[in-house]
Amino acid sequence: MSKAFSHRGARRTARGFMLLEVLVAMLIFSIGVLGIVGLQAAMTKAQTGSKFRADASFLAQRLIGNMWADRSTLVNYAAANCAGYTRCSEWVAEVARALPGGAAAVTVTALPDGTDPATGAVVAADVTVTITWTPPNEEQRTYTTTSSVSSKSPT
Questions:
Q1: Plot region of 101 (φ>0 → left; ψ -120 to 50 → alpha; else → beta)
Q2: pTM > 0.85: yes or no
Q3: What is the mean pLDDT of the chain?
Q4: For 86-132, how does the pLDDT look when each residue is reduced to its tens digit (9 = 90+)?
Q5: Torsion angle, alpha carbons of 134, 106, 63, 115, to 10
């Protein structure tokens, strides 16, 4: 009889040990799931930041492309941050729509030989486009690009 009793006690201990194993396995699984959720959140944040940088780059290059197509009026792009020139002011409005807290600044610096002596018009300039935006719950980001635009024929 004592032999059966001790066998029954061993079974009870084994059952308690299995319950403990299940609880430890659930804890490890839960920590793994939390890690995956954290990784997903970090990946989403990085992907969003990458999209904003790509959008800023695209918008800046598009403005420079517009300047190349409109080389005869380069000086209009620098006037009061494009406010007086429709093509440029529409582009600034698009930057504000495309990026959170988006703003843009355009600087047109005439090259030393970039002014037409007859008309005084800027025909060759270095153009700097700076776009800033502020993603939600983050600090301000900036994208800056510089290009030379010229309507002069090469000599």
A1: left
A2: no
A3: 83
A4: 888 899 999 999 999 999 988 888 787 766 666 666 677 888 999 99
A5: -170
Q: What is the end-to-end Cα distance of the chain in Å, rounded?
A: 113
Distance separating alpha carbons of residues 59 and 54, to the nearest angstrom: 9
Whole-number pLDDT of residue 12: 57
Q: What would the 3-class secondary structure string for the chain be?
A: CHHHHHHHHHHHHHHHHHHHHHHHHHHHHHHHHHHHHHHHHHHHHHHHHHHHHHHHHHHHHHHHHHHHHCHHHHHHHCHHHHCCCHHHHHHHHHHHHHCCCCEEEEEEEECCCCECCCCCCECEEEEEEEEEECCCCCCCEEEEEEEEEECCCCC
pLDDT at 47 over 80: yes
Reported confidence tier of residue 19, pLDDT bands at 50, 70, 90? confident
What length does the chain have? Answer: 155
| C-alpha–C-alpha distance, residues 83 and 71, integer Å | 18
